[in-house]
Amino acid sequence: MKDIKSLPIIIWSMSRWDNSLSSAAYSLAKELSKNNDVYYIDYPFTIKEYLDAKSEDYIVKRKRAILKGEDIYTKVPGLPKRFTAVTPKLLMSVSFLPPGRLYNFLARINMRRFSGVLDKIIKDNKIKDYIFFNSFNPYYGYNVPKRFKPRFYIYQSRDDIRSYGPVAKHGLRGEVKSMEEADVIMATSTNLKRVLEGDTTKSVNLLPNGAEVSLFKTAFYEDLEKPKELQNNTKPVVGYIGHIGLRLDFEILTALIASNPDKLFLFVGPGTYEEFTEVPLKDLDNVLFVGPKPLQELPRYLKYMDCTIIPFLKNAITKSIYPLKLNEQLAAGKGIITTSFSEDLDHFEDVIYRADTAEEFSHQIEKAIAENSPEQMEKRIKHTDGNSWKDRIRLFWEILDAKT
User: Fold this and answer.
1) Do 48 and 161 lie in a common domain?
2) In what order do the strands lie in the sheet with 307-310?
3) How far apart are CA 147 and CA 318, in angstroms?
4) Does residue 119 have a pLDDT over 80?
5) CA distances in angstroms from 141 to 113, 178, 207, 304, 344, listed in the order given
């Protein structure tokens, strides 16, 4: 029997390899593929998604795969040769349906279609023994192990699904079923581990998100070109990187921007703010939205930020978050001002700044910028030791070793 560390790994998540926002599951898959054959299955497109965006490049290049189940494998430039992206066929849109017989019937059809891509991966690549890693996709895959018999079925949760109304409608049931079937359960934050343990009698292992530390260190150690959007800026830059949406405290954010006209607030990431505030942020002189950027480009933006902010709401959703951006931005040497949304922030107490009002944010921004000495920035970078994706893979195998 093969050693577990040499087995192929089939990874299934809620993100695609070419998403505009960096994904923890994708980062974990890339690191695993340095030593293992990894088959990273894209989150499936639904019929509605296909019809709405069928002329977009990301659909066109997958057309044969999503319509005919042909040419499903993609080798991604720049990634290890052992990494293979896999595109499944179209699935039906069923999430809008209420729980009940119709949803269950259509979900079973989707499950059979999803199982088809697993069949093809296993047969095409003559896989006899493998690890199936469901990295937070509770909609499909929870009954796959009964049929395909992997050496390990791992279920990993990344967010408290119970706190997302639309997602919890069907996702919570799928998550509980996934944990019932799983040989190993993992959670990315301390509170999420606690939450999951309330829904299962099995042990839940902590596997926090990591960061591509070496990439983000380039923002401090290398002479990176200034982004074109900042070429004419003369103000100190306060940056936010991530999704612009329901996790943000827009009351704090709008007050903070209004009280600091001498600073430029730079937002890098997808999403929209309009449904959360009536303030037309894009029209303000000291606000700049540049949209989502590929992971490889983020250090260029970080280099020219004087500090960064994580103005998250403090609620059931954010309580279970271990944010990727924390280690990324510390690796760049940046002072981070954040609300106290998660107990996992306590591990970073010596290198972050806490604030829970707009006034406190303003004060801490000034302090963080004043403390941007090379020594202090090196201290922030040093704090990311042990928090790279390589370190997380080491912990991943330790967890599995304990189950053998």
Assistant:
1) yes
2) 287-291, 264-268, 237-241, 307-310, 336-338, 352-354
3) 36
4) yes
5) 11, 8, 21, 43, 30
pLDDT score, position 204? 97
Instruction: Name the domain count of the chain.
Output: 2
Look at residue 145 in the predicted model and tell me its pLDDT. Answer: 63
User: What's the pLDDT band for 1 if we cut at 50, 70, 90?
Assistant: low
3-class state of residue 223 by DSSP: coil
User: What integer pLDDT is reported at residue 149 of this predicted model?
Assistant: 86
Q: Residues 143, 20: one domain?
A: yes
Amino acid residing at 86:
V
- Do 157 and 255 share a domain, yes or no? no
Residue 377 has pLDDT above 80, yes or no: yes
Q: Are residues 378 and 397 in the same domain?
A: no
Dihedral sign for Cα 367, 369, 372, 377, please.
positive
Q: What is the pLDDT of residue 388?
A: 95
Q: Are 327 and 387 in contact (CB under 8 A)?
A: yes
Do 235 and 155 fall into the same domain? Answer: no
What 8-state DSSP symbol labels residue 304?
T
Integer Cα distance of 99 and 362 in angstroms: 46
Question: 132, 163 in Cβ contact below 8 A?
Answer: no
Q: What does pTM read for this prediction?
A: 0.92
Q: How far is CA 132 from the centre of its chain?
A: 19
HEC letters along 229-291: HHCCCCCCEEEEECCECCCECHHHHHHHHHCCCCCEEEEECCECCCCCCCCCHHHCCCEEEEE
Q: Are residues 99 and 171 in the same domain?
A: yes
Phi-psi region of 333 (alpha: psi -120 to 50; beta: other; left: phi over 0): left
Instruction: Take residue 306 and report the two structure tokens written for it.
Output: 């004087």
In this structure, the answer to whether residues 84 and 143 fall within a common structural domain is yes
- pLDDT at residue number 22: 72
Angle, CA of 276, 282 and 287, to the nearest 5°: 105
Both 32 and 159 in one domain: the answer is yes
In the block, tokens 């799928």 appear at: 174
| Domain housing 35 | 4-209+388-401
β-strand pairing of 73-74 with 83-86: antiparallel
